[in-house]
Design a protein that fits this description.
The chain is an alpha/beta fold. It folds into 2 domains: 98 residues, Alpha-Beta Complex (Aspartate Aminotransferase, domain 1), CATH 3.90.1150; 233 residues, 3-Layer(aba) Sandwich (Aspartate Aminotransferase, domain 2). The strands form 3 sheets. It has a 7-stranded mixed sheet with strand order 2-8-7-6-5-3-4, with helices on both faces. Strands 9-10-13-12 form a 4-stranded antiparallel sheet. A two-stranded parallel sheet has the order 1-11. Strand 5, helix 7 and strand 6 form a beta-alpha-beta unit. The longest helix has 16 residues. Bound molecules: ligand TLP.
Length: 346
């Protein structure tokens, strides 16, 4: 039980006491000089977990995706993405501005491009069109409600891209949620793709950071882009230390967040005027459609806040609730009670 029930995002998780301890004790050096042993440990551990040759610690998921796009593409190329993807919607147009690439969004059912859609989106050789430089996929899928795509589905999409000579980047900000939900090693999801970014700062509860994993050659080039973007971080082992705890201690417990999201989703689905697609509640995100529209959504957000439940609107008539380590079963009951009170007046 916490003072506030904060369902706005799993990015709001506080570092654990073990993380703070590891941060205080971390052995550090200048990482731009390649001399931070704790960063090197996190990068090696990440690469091992994802079955890749090398890793690169970066400031954020946004920076990880941008660096990956920059490393894979050259100006004038096109990046095939899902219409609701984070890289297309929530990364401030970094790839078009800095990488000078064009985004090619396609609408999907659950957030996942099918092999056919990828085949259709990849440009033919033609003087008029931008050549396709990259396919970018997202797992779990944030705006579709934390949905998971299997390693086999990932492989099918990657095969089509690779056949056309196009690399694939996986925005795996919450990849470990998918791994835990489907009971598969994270490496199974990463194997078919060329690069992957995952965040230690979300459900895994570290305060800062993401890791890009890929081939040694890819990571070497990515390291240069990181420097260009101002992401060379010196004695950053103090942050990487928390990332190591995140990977070693915080993965299995994601199942609790998934169980809490399930209970929250099922409870909300029973309330009048709210719609939850329970089939999409596969991990730690619940998307809630508010049938009465924008004003009712704003009312719910304010009413929840008055009851010490923090939620936020996602578009005019929807809300997103995210479970994480700092939300326990009792907090879920409190959140459901707040929604029950507010919707009972409708
Ligand atoms: N997502 C944040 C917000 O930006 C929406 C959140 O609260 O969920 N990929 C995916 C799929 C993400 O959900 C996010 C963050 C990122 C990349 C970017 O990571 P950060 O926030 O570390 O830049």
């Amino acid at each position: 039980m916490h003072d506030f029930v904060d369902l706005r995002s799993d990015t709001l998780t506080q570092p654990t006491p073990e993380m703070r301890e590891a941060m205080a004790r971390a052995e550090v050096g200048d990482d731009v000089w390649g001399e931070d042993p704790t960063v090197q440990r996190l990068e090696a551990l990440s690469a091992e977990r994802l079955g890749k040759a090398a890793g690169l610690f970066v400031t954020s998921g946004t920076q990880g995706n941008l660096i990956s796009v920059l490393t894979h593409t050259r100006p004038g190329q096109e990046v095939v993405v899902d219409y609701d993807s984070h890289v297309f919607n929530n990364e401030v147009a970094g790839a078009p501005i800095i990488g000078q690439v064009q985004m090619r969004p396609t609408k999907t059912e659950r957030g996942f491009l099918t092999p056919e859609q990828v085949r259709d989106a990849i440009r033919p050789a033609n003087i008029h069109v931008p050549p396709t430089g990259l396919v970018c996929i997202e797992n779990t899928h944030n705006r579709h409600g934390g949905t998971c795509c299997t390693p086999e589905e990932t492989a099918a999409v990657a095969a089509v891209a690779h056949e056309a000579g196009v690399p694939v980047h996986l925005d795996g900000a919450r990849l470990f949620n998918a791994a835990v939900a489907l009971g598969r090693p994270a490496a199974d999801f990463a194997r078919p793709v060329d690069s992957v970014t995952f965040c230690v700062s979300k459900g895994l509860s570290a305060p800062v950071g993401s890791v890009i994993c890929g081939s040694a050659e890819f990571i070497e080039r990515a390291r240069r882009w990181r420097k260009l973007l101002g992401g060379g971080m010196r004695q950053v082992g103090v942050l990487a230390a928390a990332g190591i705890v995140a990977l070693e201690r915080m993965v299995e417990r994601l199942a609790e967040d998934h169980a809490n999201a399930r209970r929250l989703g099922e409870g909300l689905a029973k309330l009048p005027g709210l719609r939850v697609d329970l089939a999409s509640v596969q991990t730690n995100i619940v998307i809630l459609r508010v049938e009465r529209g924008a004003a009712a959504t704003a009312e719910l957000v304010a009413g929840c806040a008055a009851r010490k439940v923090k939620v936020h609107a996602m578009g005019p008539a929807a809300m997103r609730c995210v479970t994480h380590k700092d939300v326990d079963a009792e907090d879920i009951s409190r959140a459901l009670q707040a929604f029950r009170e507010l919707t009972s007046r409708w």
